């Protein structure tokens, strides 16, 4: 891993960082990846019957339910009201296409 | 009242026999907060309506409608939502966020008539093992102010240890309940994955997180666990596990028959993974662990050596899966929907400045790490490999639980360490080495205080049970507790 990889990651993760912090991050990454790389030595061929975790996705209908919102009469307003910027019942964001 | 010795159970009796009121109990907690919160930095906010809550509880008690937790003052970790109150996960990015709904655990505790004292300090977004990564300064260990209380639920542990609340809720993704409980001489319990709803808990690692209690005694932990456990339609991973009912999981016949009897721990077989304990453990911790095993043996438990060759990889697996999940979960903090939003000329700059300024260093590090292990070209080597190893570790535990009822280790490799001692992230991460396997394998686990070292710092013993094995866990932990000196807190 090099400094340019850290810069790429910061861009992907949408995090602004000083160059000093990027240099420190690179050092930390080398140490952390050095530690976690030990899993590469685990031989998974001996027990191929247990390939993956038994976790499954659980889906539900995407419906607005007042019973789930704990007596909140106006859940949409509640949701919008906590946004940093809003207008006419909508969350306001900066222009996306320039 | 001496709140540092008052258990929830004793307070319940005192309240029901009208020896004292819920108001008096709350006032005494507030007095301790007044005296020591500034020095220890336990609460990020003490609620201004504590006495009003207590008066409501007193009315319920007078009307004869009380249940076990009515009027009991509890402290809540700052990542669990209480409707209408601030909740920040000890992060600048949520410093002024007010919760718009109750977490399911809070709803259950409100229905029980609990008094919420305030929200407790923690590592930012629960990322840490010392409470030092809080954006609002570290919490101090009441046994030695130069030491950490553990983390990430450090504030919750110190609130209970210093008599500011009778119990607390924490969350545990790698040991964040059990390790601070251990460092503060308390009982900390992480339920089976899914046993307690996470609806309204700020997500860290969604395939791993659990909410659980920090208390003075095993019995108190069981009281809170019973109140908050249960399946919830708002958390799709939740399931019904209750220590008082037959579990829905298949378990060993000896466990099932043992549940029927009162003295149920006698005859339990406890496995000790010796290989796992051979490196990096403080000699006093190890000596105390052996003495605790002897106590369990004397009480009729069978202690055998077991081998879990893959368990040592749990922490490495965790430091791939947790950052991956955290980087996904924390993508929601974009400065658009809620929380802090930085000023910038365009959308991309708003994102980057908001997240750069709003998140602390450890959070930024873990988001970056998660982004890396999930990125094209590294996904197979890290995320997929870690998921497969996790499956193997779970399988290894399942095999061992065919032979033993419980597994024992020390809770942490050392007692509470010094503030500022662990600068290198990996050395900090290693303090979770014994607690993280239960999270990786979805198992319930409890930490029980087992005396102190020569410097007066608490030591602790951890028991893990099979999935849904809360009953065996509690009954064995109670035996251990019975043979220990009563809680002589500082």
UniProtKB/TrEMBL annotation, chain A:
Transmembrane segments: none annotated. It holds the Pfam family GatC. This is Asp/Glu-ADT subunit C. GO terms for biological process: glutaminyl-tRNAGln biosynthesis via transamidation; regulation of translational fidelity.
Automatic annotation (TrEMBL), chain B:
Its EC number is 6.3.5.7. Allows the formation of correctly charged Gln-tRNA(Gln) through the transamidation of misacylated Glu-tRNA(Gln) in organisms which lack glutaminyl-tRNA synthetase. The reaction takes place in the presence of glutamine and ATP through an activated gamma-phospho-Glu-tRNA(Gln). Keywords: ATP-binding, Ligase, Nucleotide-binding, Protein biosynthesis, Transferase. Pfam families: Amidase. The gene is gatA. InterPro entries: Amidase, Amidase_CS, Amidase_dom, AS_sf, GatA. GO terms for biological process: translation. The active site is at residues 77, 152, 176. PROSITE patterns: AMIDASES. It catalyses: L-glutamyl-tRNA(Gln) + L-glutamine + ATP + H2O = L-glutaminyl-tRNA(Gln) + L-glutamate + ADP + phosphate + H(+). Belongs to the amidase family. GatA subfamily. GO terms for cellular component: glutamyl-tRNA(Gln) amidotransferase complex. It comes from Candidatus Nomurabacteria bacterium RIFCSPLOWO2_02_FULL_42_17. GO terms for molecular function: ATP binding; glutaminyl-tRNA synthase (glutamine-hydrolyzing) activity; transferase activity. The keyword Cell membrane does not apply. The lineage of its organism: Bacteria, Candidatus Nomuraibacteriota. PANTHER family: GLUTAMYL-TRNA(GLN) AMIDOTRANSFERASE SUBUNIT A, TRANSAMIDASE. Residues 26-473 form the Amidase domain. This is Glutamyl-tRNA(Gln) amidotransferase subunit A. Heterotrimer of A, B and C subunits. SUPFAM superfamilies: Amidase signature (AS) enzymes.
């Amino acid at each position: 891993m090099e400094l340019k990889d850290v810069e790429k990651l910061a861009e992907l993760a949408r995090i602004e960082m000083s160059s000093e912090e990027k240099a420190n991050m690179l050092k930390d990454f080398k140490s952390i990846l050095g530690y976690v790389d030990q899993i590469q030595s685990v031989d998974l061929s001996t027990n191929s019957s247990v390939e993956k975790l038994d976790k499954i996705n659980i889906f539900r209908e995407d419906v607005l339910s007042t019973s789930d919102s704990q007596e909140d009469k106006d859940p949409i307003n509640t949701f919008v009201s906590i946004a940093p910027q809003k207008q006419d019942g909508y969350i306001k964001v900066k222009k996306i296409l320039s | 009242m001496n709140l540092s010795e008052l258990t929830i159970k004793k307070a319940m009796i005192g309240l029901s026999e009208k020896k004292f009121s819920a108001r008096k109990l709350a006032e005494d907690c507030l007095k301790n907060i007044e005296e020591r919160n500034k020095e220890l930095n336990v609460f990020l906010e003490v609620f201004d309506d504590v006495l009003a809550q207590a008066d409501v509880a007193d009315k319920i008690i007078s009307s004869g409608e009380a249940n076990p937790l009515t009027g009991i003052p509890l402290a809540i970790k700052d990542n669990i939502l209480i409707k209408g109150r601030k909740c920040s996960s000890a992060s600048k990015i949520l410093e002024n966020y007010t919760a718009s709904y109750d977490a399911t655990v809070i709803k259950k505790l409100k229905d029980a008539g609990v008094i919420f004292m305030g929200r407790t300090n923690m590592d930012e977004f629960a990322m840490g093992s010392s409470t030092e990564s809080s954006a609002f300064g570290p919490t101090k260990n009441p046994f030695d102010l130069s030491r950490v209380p553990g983390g990430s639920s450090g504030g919750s542990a110190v609130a209970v240890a210093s008599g500011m609340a009778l119990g607390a809720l924490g969350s545990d993704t790698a040991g964040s309940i059990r390790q601070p409980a251990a460092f503060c001489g308390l009982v900390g319990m992480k339920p089976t994955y899914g046993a307690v709803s996470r609806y309204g808990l700020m997500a860290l690692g969604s395939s791993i997180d659990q909410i659980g209690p920090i208390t003075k005694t095993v019995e108190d932990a069981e009281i809170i666990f019973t109140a908050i456990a249960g399946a919830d339609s708002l958390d799709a991973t939740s399931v019904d596990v209750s220590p008082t009912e037959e579990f829905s999981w298949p378990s060993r016949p000896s466990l099932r028959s043992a549940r029927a009897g009162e003295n149920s721990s006698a005859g339990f077989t406890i496995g000790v993974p010796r290989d796992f304990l051979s490196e990096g453990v403080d000699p006093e911790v190890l000596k105390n662990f052996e003495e605790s095993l002897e106590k369990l043996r004397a009480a009729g438990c069978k202690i055998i050596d077991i081998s879990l060759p893959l368990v040592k990889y749990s922490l490495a697996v965790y430091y791939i899966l947790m950052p991956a999940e955290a980087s996904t979960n924390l993508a929601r903090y974009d400065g658009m929907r809620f929380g802090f939003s930085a000023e910038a000329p365009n959308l991309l700059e708003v994102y980057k400045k908001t997240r750069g300024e709003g998140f602390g260093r450890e959070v930024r590090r873990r988001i970056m790490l998660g982004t890396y292990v999930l990125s094209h070209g590294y996904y197979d080597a890290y995320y997929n490999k870690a998921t497969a190893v996790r499956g193997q570790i779970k399988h290894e535990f399942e095999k061992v639980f065919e032979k033993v009822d419980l597994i024992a280790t020390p809770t942490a490799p050392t007692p509470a360490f010094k503030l500022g001692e662990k600068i290198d992230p990996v050395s900090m991460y290693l303090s979770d080495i014994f607690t993280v396997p239960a999270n990786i394998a979805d198992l319930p686990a409890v930490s029980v205080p087992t005396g102190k070292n020569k410097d007066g710092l608490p030591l602790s013993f951890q028991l893990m049970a099979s999935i849904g094995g809360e009953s065996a866990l509690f009954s064995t932990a109670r035996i251990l507790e019975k043979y220990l000196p009563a809680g002589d807190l500082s």
